[in-house]
Amino acid sequence: MTDTTDNIKISIVVPVKNGMDTLERFIAGIQLQSLLKDIEVVIIDSGSNDGSIGYLEAFDFVKVISIDPKTFNHGATRNFAITQCQGEFVFMTVQDAWTTDEHLLKRMLAHFDDIEVMGVCGQQIVPKRDDTNPHEWFRPFSSPKPKSIQFKTQDQFLSLSSEEQFKLCGWDDVIAMYRKTALLEIPFKPVAFGEDMLWAKAALIKGYKIVYDYRNRVNHYHHAYPGFVYKRTFIVLYFIYKSFGFVRDLSVSKSEFLKILYRNFKYKVNPKWIIFNWKAKDARHSAFLDFKHALNLSEEDLEHLYESVCSNVPQGKSYKTK
């Protein structure tokens, strides 16, 4: 990487491990950005052996930093990455997300003209592709408007119900931009899941202003096989319970199963998606029931089940790889 640190305004942080299947389209989206001359990409690679490092090092706006895979942690690794960033602003994303919007970063950056704004979050969507689930394709029905959230005192935020607090903290490090100073002041918690939502909670308690602007979107997709859905659902339920203090209802009603049939005929897609989505919904419902059952027994039973089922955060898989 050439020495252009004087020009860097935005540092893009991307954890990578064996990302060659998706890195080309990720890099293409970066090269498309209208602010390309003001960007550096900070790659934190944890043991790639598929050519990812060699591919990335060919780009002069990319800096690759290798870490021991055993030390990777969603929160702690991102904190380390921040110390390697030269930009005043830090954009968090992942190796398998990509954009075709040339003004994505420019639009997000504009919110920071307000000196009280410390973070801006966008939206990940499922693109219309042959290798994605058509029931999950992004089908917008309205134009979103940016929403700012700020509490002048921590009591204002803490007086909200646990569920209300959670709804305000749907932050997402697949597409989020921060002031670097805010990340240094409130680092991510060293957790295996949910570091982004916990940051939003801490920021709101501190009185920071954060912005949700869903005009900003990246494509991102994990093929939701039943095993992935079960583990992911259980992890989400556990995280929300431990971090926000309530049990989110992720049960699946009979009407949701019927909607699978309706949507499949409405979208005129292959009948195989009926079975696929039915199994995915059933896996989500089973995870919810198992979580509730363990919690009703005791906190200790919940911890044991969590360790046995979800000691490792499951990774999304491609359509062709089960």
TrEMBL record:
The record's Gene3D superfamilies line, in alphabetical order, gives: Spore Coat Polysaccharide Biosynthesis Protein SpsA, Chain A (3.90.550.10)
This protein's source sits in the domain of life called Bacteria
* Domain Glycosyltransferase 2-like, residue spans: 11-136
Q: Which InterPro entries match?
A: Glyco_trans_2-like (IPR001173), Nucleotide-diphossugar_trans (IPR029044)
- Pfam families under this entry? Glycos_transf_2
- Descriptive protein name: Glycosyltransferase family 2 protein
